Task: inverse folding
């Protein structure tokens, strides 16, 4: 690009130089012709007076058509950025864009206050019939025993040796104690014949006296003493009867026509939750 500008500038200077030489040659010819005419006539030619009468100086002004356009100048530096224009008016609302991807799950917020209770709902449909549960009849524990003679000793368990019912063998005639196998609620009762002396009997549970029964013997009479209680037992608990006190209170009696009995049975078992059928 720089070489092109140099070539154009050289052409322009050569043209101006040629134009100046032609003008100088023309002026010399005009002067020689004027000198020749004055010599031939023998008279000097007077120069015209007045403004604009000087014809010896040629008019260097040329018509516009004779002018030559100049070489374009070097582009100027970029101007400073103009001021920001005023904000334009809001354009029309665009179409709804596509739904973006779901963001990451945020941290749990703080627990809000408990709201007011809502209105009571409608009753639900009845549920399905549940599975058959455990029957209390499937758990058995019962005994009923009696004496065949006068109690021989006091402050020890009374050993009943006549059996009316003891199918589960939960009553032990050797120790004279009922031993719980099935935990639950039990009912115990006793009916004793009192003869020849006073009787004081206590019902024990695990070496602790639970209740007492006392009967004062009347001569020539056969008395009766009785008692009953309901107890909650765990597996391994033991229950028994014994004469409480010294030999003076050992009037518990039995023979062929008079009985002294001790009975007990399970009212309902305590079934663990883990063992219940669902």
Result:
């Amino acid at each position: 690009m720089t070489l092109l500008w140099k070539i154009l500038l050289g052409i322009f200077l050569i043209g101006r130089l040629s134009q100046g030489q032609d003008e100088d040659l023309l002026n010399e010819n005009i002067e020689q012709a004027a000198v020749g005419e004055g010599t031939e006539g023998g008279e000097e030619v007077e120069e015209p007076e007045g403004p604009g009468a000087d014809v010896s100086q040629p008019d260097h002004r040329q018509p516009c058509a004779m002018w030559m356009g100049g070489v374009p100048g070097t582009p100027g530096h970029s101007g400073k950025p103009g001021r920001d224009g005023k904000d334009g008016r809001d354009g029309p609302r665009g179409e709804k864009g596509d739904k973006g991807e779901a963001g990451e799950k945020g941290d749990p917020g703080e627990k809000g206050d408990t709201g007011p209770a809502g209105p009571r709902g409608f009753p639900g449909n009845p549920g399905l019939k549940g599975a058959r549960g455990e029957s209390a009849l499937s758990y058995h524990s019962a005994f009923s025993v009696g004496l065949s003679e006068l109690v021989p000793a006091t402050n020890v368990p009374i050993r009943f040796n006549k059996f009316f019912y003891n199918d589960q063998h939960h009553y032990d005639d050797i120790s004279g104690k009922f031993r719980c196998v099935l935990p639950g609620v039990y009912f115990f009762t006793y009916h004793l014949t009192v003869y020849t002396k006073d009787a004081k009997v206590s019902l024990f549970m695990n070496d602790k006296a639970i209740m007492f029964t006392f009967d004062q013997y009347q001569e020539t009479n056969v008395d009766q003493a009785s008692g009953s209680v309901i107890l909650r037992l765990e597996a391994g608990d033991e229950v028994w009867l014994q004469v409480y006190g010294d030999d003076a209170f050992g009037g518990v009696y039995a023979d062929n026509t008079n009985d002294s009995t001790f009975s007990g049975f399970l009212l309902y078992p305590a079934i663990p939750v883990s063992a219940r059928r669902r």
Notes: Residues 2-41 form the longest helix (40 residues). Helices lie at 2-41. Residues 37-48 have pLDDT under 50 and may be disordered. DSSP finds one helix and ten strands in the chain.
